[in-house]
């Protein structure tokens, strides 16, 4: 994780930043899937819980070879008018490190009931008696709205940035550039 590339959204009167970030991140995800890459991580320098936002910059982290391989793909088609991008830059030696991970929550009791009914061969009424409304959880983390390629459904990818640490923790990243244990540089 000694190199990075910043991709910053340009202001656009027609499209709000969260919509553009969702489109950009969806393209990034598809590129990682196509490359079968597990050595590229992401961070969001403008990330904030209050106000809740991912910000307007997607920072890609990796080795020079991994980032060059990603950027040699044509994954930014359709986004180039909406972004400004830095060249491959070396991570500052004074950078801290943090885990950037996906968090999943039970946010919709009715969806959980439908799923239970289907999986346990129950009626919806039986599932309702087993799953109370109180299982729903209000989430205060920033998120990116994406569309599932397999189901076509829209979903929220909730992202949590952990505490900063002075030393990096090596590991792999999923196809969203997120990890449950590996860190990315934070500066």
Structure description:
By secondary structure, the chain is α+β, with helices and mostly antiparallel strands. It has one domain (3-104, 139-186): Alpha-Beta Plaits (2-Layer Sandwich), CATH 3.30.70.2540. It is 24% helix and 26% strand. It has helices at residues 17-35, 64-71, 109-119, 124-130; strands spanning 3-9, 41-43, 48-49, 52-53, 57-62, 83-85, 89-90, 96-98, 100-103, 143-147, 154-161, 184-186. Strands 1, 2, 5, 6 and 7 form a 5-stranded antiparallel beta sheet that branches. A 3-stranded antiparallel beta sheet has the order 9-11-10. A hairpin with a 2-residue loop joins strand 3 and strand 4. It is globular, with a radius of gyration of 19 Å. The protein starts with a strand and ends with a strand. The mean pLDDT is 93.
Q: How many β-strands, per DSSP?
A: 12
Query: How much strand content do the residues show?
Result: 25-35%
Structural class label: alpha+beta
- Rg measurement, Å: 19 Å
Which sequence of SSEs, written as H and E, runs from N to C?
A: EHEEEEHEEEEHHEEE
Indicate the CATH topology.
Alpha-Beta Plaits
Which shape, going by the Cα principal axes? globular
What gap, in angstroms, lies between the N and C termini? 13 Å
- The overall pLDDT average reads 93
Write the CATH homologous superfamily. Answer: CRISPR-associated endoribonuclease Cas6/Csy4
CATH class: Alpha Beta
In DSSP terms, counting alpha (H) and pi (I) runs of 4 or more, how many helices? 4
**Helicity level:** 10-25%
Low-confidence runs (pLDDT<50, min 5 residues)? none
Sheet with the most strands, sense and barrel status = 5 strands, antiparallel
User: What count of domains describes the coordinates?
Assistant: 1
Query: Would you identify the CATH architecture?
Result: 2-Layer Sandwich
Pfam families: Cas_Csy4
Organism: Halomonas kalidii
Protein name: Type I-F CRISPR-associated endoribonuclease Cas6/Csy4
């Amino acid at each position: 994780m000694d190199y990075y590339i910043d991709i910053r959204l340009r202001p656009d009167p027609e499209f709000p930043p969260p919509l553009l970030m969702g489109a950009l991140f969806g393209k990034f995800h598809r590129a990682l899937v196509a490359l079968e890459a597990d050595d590229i991580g992401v961070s969001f320098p403008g990330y904030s819980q209050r106000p809740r936002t991912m910000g307007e910059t997607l920072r890609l982290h990796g080795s020079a070879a991994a980032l060059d391989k990603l950027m040699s793909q044509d994954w930014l088609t359709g986004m180039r008018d909406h972004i400004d991008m830095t060249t491959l830059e070396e991570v500052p030696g004074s950078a801290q490190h943090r885990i950037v991970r996906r968090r999943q929550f039970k946010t919709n009791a009715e969806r959980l009931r439908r799923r239970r009914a289907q999986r346990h061969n129950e009626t919806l009424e039986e599932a309702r008696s087993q799953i109370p409304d109180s299982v729903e959880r209000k989430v205060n983390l920033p998120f990116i709205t994406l569309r599932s390629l397999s189901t076509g459904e829209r979903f929220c990818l909730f992202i949590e940035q952990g505490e900063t640490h002075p030393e990096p923790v090596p590991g792999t990243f999923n196809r969203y550039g997120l990890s449950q244990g590996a860190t990315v540089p934070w500066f």
